[in-house]
């Protein structure tokens, strides 16, 4: 007992000593001695900070002994480090100098420790208060669209997918998104949801982005890069902040637009005493989404004669030969991009037998009539999003802070994978506990989500099939196609005649469509709701054969990690950090998205990782060199573990900073790429593990590659008979990359800033899902593929044997003209090359017999051999002219964005196409009202309202116009 009392006495003595407070006061002004309100003042090396009052005064308490350093920063002014000594700590006088170009940003993402952005070992971008204020984008997240090398693929008004350095995806699982250190991605679906479940816009302090492999410090999920969003600390950013934003979109759409939207947010933070602070955030957005309303004839390699070919060279593809016909009344196989149920490779088309009675239709592929996306959704495009956060912060000492946080996201959105899928009420909770000190952190968090959605295309098909089957057939003679005996196709065939210029198609469709369920009718709504609200493991009400189309992914994630900086223990001889992490996934889909274990339980996934990094600043006169080496080990329980080493160096001479890095990394497949499996008989994605591959029956009933089946269907007599596509799922492994990069940054005369880079990457064991047709009845043989109702379409994940090479370069520049004017811009170039290899490692030839060695993946003769999914524009650039100080209150920005055409290979019901180039003009004007601590902003993106799509089948983006008023840090 006595020892316990002595221990408590000693602990109290240490605590009291640690909290002996010194009050530091002062004033911050500009070069004209005018007070600057809202300036951030932080005690270096601690979490103690404050913001200046309207008269520029500040006061803070710290237990740090004098002398100490204050870090002072404010939008539009150069950052300062001010030394406080015993003779000035009660009246610190600080003057900030206006700068049009700010380059003294501090970043933590590149090396996991704070460092000057100019001396970061890899390319890193940072967006902060200055960039958010100047950007015409409606949200901080949307401001990423102006960062060099970044492609934002817009899935929904609140859901945009970040893509960098090739292999663009609507659901990018090669890119890691962290929010306050927590993985922002869905535990089961495996991709980030953008702002659907992010932090409130008012609470975003900064966004850092690394466009390149970052696995050495952040693990295998950061194969292509990472984004780190940091929220505002309540000790530093206090008071009441509020924002109201009203706007409209969907202009110029006949019978639909324009549509209004409302976005409002509130934040309150308060420090109580010297140790405790809290913050509360809430944001809500309501409006109408941009609508996917492209009804042009779908471009897909599943089409008859999709590639134009050269018969004298073995049938090699020379381009796209399919000529779209957007009129369903004159086109047998009209398949609208955002029409569903008419899909030629999802049970919406019938190929008439070669011996069909109506000779005009023999071997003819005919699609049935589909429904538009808006008709199937039935919600008129309404979208909503709620975000909330509560965080409690407690200072254990002046340098150690503990926090507890709750992060909530809720909304509806559409995502595009193999199909378009609608999530009507997504919900996610994240809970985090963290202790962070000057040289360490310990963090634990969990992600709990409720994600239930349904497949829009499958639902449209099911409504059609329930009303009237596409075709009723009986098996034909050996070696012959099935015989048509009834259904929609039979009625079409009996009614069709050659009415001149194919005029008979309209009449035949009209006859076959008699009695069809019309969108919005009671019959249509009843069936739509039955399929959408019944899980795919259950039969819809009133049926013993038709199963629902709803799936769920209520998966959870638990993550634990820590890091320690050993530099001080090593007397600053070398900078060394080390860390480790443990992660546990609990998949929970009830068998609707992932298979179950043999005992009926859900699968789980465990991952472990550990890393160490060492660096050293070496000075040689005016020249400094900072070499850094890092290595990380990661292991997923279902796959082989591996090392991810990185070596880098930064050479600095005056204002010149040259960087170089090399890294070898790998990526663990997402849970979906491991386990995904569609419902029985339906199209969808298949995971690469034996549990998914065998669960889909591919081990006993292998499918056939679409690229081999399509020529066979077009011309059975001359095309090669397709062979079963067999994969060994036991060899499924991690995706690997080796990449190197060089870059250069400089600031000339504090007016001209340049950042440029070049990188080269090589992928092996690349995971790319190929489209495969699997017969619904095993043993039918290739001839069964001549009837579309005999098979389903799958996208099978496996390790491609090809070698893939990605090369790219970029440059960003900013010039300050004086008087507040800055001209900035960036340009990025990248391309993807492939060396095609077979399963034995031998180089494959194209159909003309020429080896496929380092050829562009967009070349038709390469695309003819199978999809590679590079999906990235070769060129893109942005140009901005801005002035935050047109007057002492008025600022403005105008931005022009241009993106090159893009070769797209995407999904089951998406397609293969050259997506046209697009451009956008964005602008904003802002006005400060200091007396109310507010800013009024009038802005818009794509203000010329030139509609464009960032992905095939996605919603086309038009003008978005808004006016907002923001009140910041009232009631401090």
TrEMBL record:
Signal peptide from the UniProt entry: 1-20
All residue ranges annotated as the TonB-dependent receptor plug domain in the record: 117-225
All copies of domain TonB-dependent receptor-like beta-barrel, residue ranges: 527-943
One matching Pfam family: CarbopepD_reg_2
Places the protein is found: Cell outer membrane
Membrane topology: Multi-pass membrane protein
Keyword NADP set for record: no
Positions of transmembrane segments: none
Keywords noted in UniProt: Cell outer membrane, Membrane, Receptor, Signal, TonB box, Transmembrane, Transmembrane beta strand, Transport
Superkingdom: Bacteria
Protein family per UniProt: Belongs to the TonB-dependent receptor family.
Name under which the protein is recorded: TonB-dependent receptor domain-containing protein
Lineage: Bacteria, Pseudomonadati, Bacteroidota, Cytophagia, Cytophagales
């Amino acid at each position: 007992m006595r020892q316990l009392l002595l221990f408590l006495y000693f602990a109290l003595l240490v605590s009291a000593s640690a909290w002996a407070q010194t009050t530091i006061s002062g004033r911050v002004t500009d070069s004209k001695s005018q007070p600057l309100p809202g300036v951030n003042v932080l005690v270096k090396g601690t979490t103690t900070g404050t913001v200046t009052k309207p008269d520029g005064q500040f006061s803070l308490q710290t237990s740090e002994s004098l002398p100490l350093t204050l870090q002072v920063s404010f939008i539009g002014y150069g950052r300062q480090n001010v030394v406080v000594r015993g003779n000035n700590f009660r009246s610190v006088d600080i003057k900030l100098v206006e700068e049009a170009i700010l380059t003294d940003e501090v970043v933590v993402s590149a090396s996991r420790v704070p460092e000057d952005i100019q001396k970061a070992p890899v390319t890193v971008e940072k967006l902060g208060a200055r960039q958010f204020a100047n950007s015409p984008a409606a949200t901080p997240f949307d401001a990423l669209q102006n960062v060099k090398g970044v492609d934002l693929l817009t899935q929904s008004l609140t859901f945009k997918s970040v893509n960098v350095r090739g292999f663009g995806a609507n659901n990018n699982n090669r890119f890691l998104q962290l929010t306050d250190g927590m993985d922002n991605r869905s535990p089961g679906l495996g991709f980030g949801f953008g702002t659907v479940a992010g932090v409130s816009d008012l609470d975003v302090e900064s966004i850092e982005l690394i466009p390149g492999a970052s696995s050495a410090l952040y693990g295998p999920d950061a194969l292509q890069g990472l984004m780190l969003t940091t929220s505002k600390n309540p000790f530093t950013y206090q008071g009441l902040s509020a924002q109201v934003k009203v706007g409209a979109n969907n202009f110029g759409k006949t019978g639909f637009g324009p549509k209004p939207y409302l976005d409002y947010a509130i934040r309150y933070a308060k420090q109580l005493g010297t140790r405790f602070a809290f913050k509360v955030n809430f944001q809500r957005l309501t409006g109408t989404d941009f609508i996917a309303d492209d009804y042009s004839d779908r471009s897909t390699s599943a089409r008859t004669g999709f590639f134009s070919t050269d018969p004298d060279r073995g049938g090699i593809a020379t381009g796209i030969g399919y000529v779209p016909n957007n009129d369903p009344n004159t086109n047998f196989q009209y398949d609208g991009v955002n029409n569903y149920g008419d899909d030629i490779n999802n049970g919406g088309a019938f190929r008439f037998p070669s011996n069909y009675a109506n000779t005009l239709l023999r071997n003819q592929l005919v699609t049935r009539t589909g429904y538009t996306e808006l008709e199937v959704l039935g919600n008129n495009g309404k979208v909503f999003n709620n975000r909330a956060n509560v965080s409690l912060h407690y200072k254990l000492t002046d340098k150690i802070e503990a926090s507890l946080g709750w992060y909530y996201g809720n909304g509806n959105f559409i995502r595009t994978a193999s199909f378009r899928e609608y999530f009507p009420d997504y919900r996610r909770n994240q809970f985090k506990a963290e202790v962070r000190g000057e040289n360490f952190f310990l963090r634990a968090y969990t992600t709990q989500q409720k994600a239930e959605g349904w497949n829009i295309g499958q639902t449209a098909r099911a409504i059609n099939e329930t009303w009237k089957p596409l075709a009723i057939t009986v098996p034909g003679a050996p070696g012959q196609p099935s015989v048509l005996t009834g259904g929609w196709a039979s009625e079409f065939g009996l009614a069709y005649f050659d009415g001149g210029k194919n005029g008979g198609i309209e009449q035949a469709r009209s006859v076959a469509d008699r009695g069809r369920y019309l969108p919005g009718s009671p019959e249509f709504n009843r069936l739509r709701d039955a399929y959408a609200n019944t899980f795919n493991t259950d039969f819809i009400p009133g049926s013993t054969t038709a199963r629902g189309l709803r799936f769920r992914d209520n998966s959870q994630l638990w993550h634990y990690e820590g890091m320690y900086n050993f530099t001080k223990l090593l007397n600053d001889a070398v900078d060394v950090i080390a860390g480790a992490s443990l992660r546990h996934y609990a998949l929970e889909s009830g068998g609707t998205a992932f298979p179950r274990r043999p005992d009926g339980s859900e699968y789980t996934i465990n991952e472990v990782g550990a890393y160490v990094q060492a660096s050293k600043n070496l000075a040689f006169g005016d020249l400094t060199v900072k070499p850094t080496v890092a290595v990380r080990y990661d292991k997923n329980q279902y796959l082989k573990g591996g090392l991810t080493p990185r070596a880098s160096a930064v050479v600095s001479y005056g204002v010149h900073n040259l960087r170089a890095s090399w890294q070898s990394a790998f990526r663990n497949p997402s849970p979906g790429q491991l386990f995904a499996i569609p419902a029985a008989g339906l199209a969808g994605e298949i995971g690469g593990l034996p549990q998914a591959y065998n669960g889909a029956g591919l081990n006993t009933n292998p499918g056939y590659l679409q690229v081999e089946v399509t020529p066979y269907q077009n011309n059975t007599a001359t095309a090669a008979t397709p062979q079963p596509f067999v994969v060994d799922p036991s060899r499924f492994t991690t995706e690997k990359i080796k990449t190197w990069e060089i870059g250069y940054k400089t600031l000339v005369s504090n007016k001209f800033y340049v950042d440029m880079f070049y990188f080269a990457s090589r992928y092996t064991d690349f995971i790319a899902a190929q489209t495969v047709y699997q017969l619904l009845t095993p043993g039918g043989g290739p001839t069964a593929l001549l009837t579309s109702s005999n098979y389903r379409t799958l996208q099978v994940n496996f390790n491609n044997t090809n070698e893939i090479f990605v090369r790219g370069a970029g440059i960003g520049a900013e010039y300050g003209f004086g008087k507040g004017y800055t001209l900035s811009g960036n340009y990025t170039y990248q391309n993807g090359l492939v060396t095609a290899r077979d399963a034995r490692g031998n180089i494959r030839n194209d159909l003309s017999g020429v080896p496929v060695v380092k050829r562009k993946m967009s070349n038709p003769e390469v695309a003819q051999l199978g999809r590679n999914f590079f999906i990235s524009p070769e060129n893109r650039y942005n140009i901005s002219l801005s002035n935050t100080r047109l007057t002492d209150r008025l600022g403005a920005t105008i931005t022009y964005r241009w993106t090159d055409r893009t070769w797209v290979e995407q999904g089951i019901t998406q397609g293969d196409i050259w997506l046209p180039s697009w451009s956008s003009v964005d602008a904003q004007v802002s006005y400060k009202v200091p007396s109310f601590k507010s800013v009024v902003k009038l802005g818009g993106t794509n203000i010329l309202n030139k509609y464009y799509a960032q992905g095939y089948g996605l919603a086309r983006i038009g003008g978005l116009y808004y006016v907002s008023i923001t009140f910041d840090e009232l009631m401090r």
